[in-house]
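Colleagues,

For the teaching module next term, I've prepared a clean inverse folding example: a structure given as tokens, and then the sequence designed for it. I'd like students to try predicting residues themselves before seeing the answer, so please don't circulate the second half yet.
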């Protein structure tokens, strides 16, 4: 369902990957949140994580650095090729995140790190349902996305003519879509725009879990810096 967006990223993949490198090194809050997500996964007995819309692989590599068995998928073959070369400690596959090529209960966690920025609000429940389909019981989901700003439309990027719209979702809307898809929201966080990092908007993060067996509560979250 995102084929046209993947085609746009094919045009800019090399320049995009050269521009956005090692983002977690300069964003300690984001790194601590990713580490807390990995802790939650381990506390529930899981270790296999799928990074959807992985791009050049930064978040996939960060999941691997946190000790998880990480797999990244992206609809851009060039992005996947770059990720394989740059971060060989994880595995990668070309795939559409709306149609994941895995059977049910394949992963204990799904990470969508800035991967829903091209998905309209009305499509979020079906996307989250697809994420839930491949999760084990219990299964964890981490979302990172831009928030508190209007959409941005680009006709040019990195010297290429493109047609790309970047959506900024608000947190309550994302949480409602998660509930519709059968998830329970565990934690939300918001970080202000960092101008020195060329961020254009505030950043939002949501951790949710999908538990088919409700016999017991989920584990408590480790502390995250604020």
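(Answer key — instructors only)
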């Amino acid at each position: 369902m995102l084929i046209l967006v993947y085609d746009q990223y094919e045009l800019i993949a090399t320049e995009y990957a050269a521009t956005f490198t090692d983002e977690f090194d300069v964003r300690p809050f984001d790194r601590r949140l990713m580490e807390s997500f990995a802790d939650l996964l381990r506390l529930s007995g899981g270790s296999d994580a799928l990074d959807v819309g992985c791009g050049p692989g930064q978040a996939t590599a960060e999941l691997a650095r946190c000790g998880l068995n990480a797999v990244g998928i992206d609809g851009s073959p060039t992005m996947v090729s770059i990720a394989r070369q740059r971060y060989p400690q994880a595995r990668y596959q070309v795939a559409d995140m709306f149609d994941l090529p895995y059977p049910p209960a394949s992963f204990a966690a799904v990470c969508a790190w800035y991967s829903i920025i091209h998905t309209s609000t009305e499509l979020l429940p079906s996307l989250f349902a697809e994420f839930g389909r491949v999760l084990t019981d219990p299964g964890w989901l981490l979302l990172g996305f831009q928030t508190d700003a209007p959409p941005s439309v680009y006709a040019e990027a990195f010297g290429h003519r493109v047609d790309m719209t970047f959506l900024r979702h608000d947190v309550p809307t994302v949480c409602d879509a998660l509930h519709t898809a059968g998830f329970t929201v565990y934690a939300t966080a918001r970080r202000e725009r960092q101008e020195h990092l060329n961020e254009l908007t505030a950043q939002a993060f949501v951790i949710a879990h999908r538990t088919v067996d409700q016999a017991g509560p989920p584990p408590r979250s480790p502390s995250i810096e604020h």
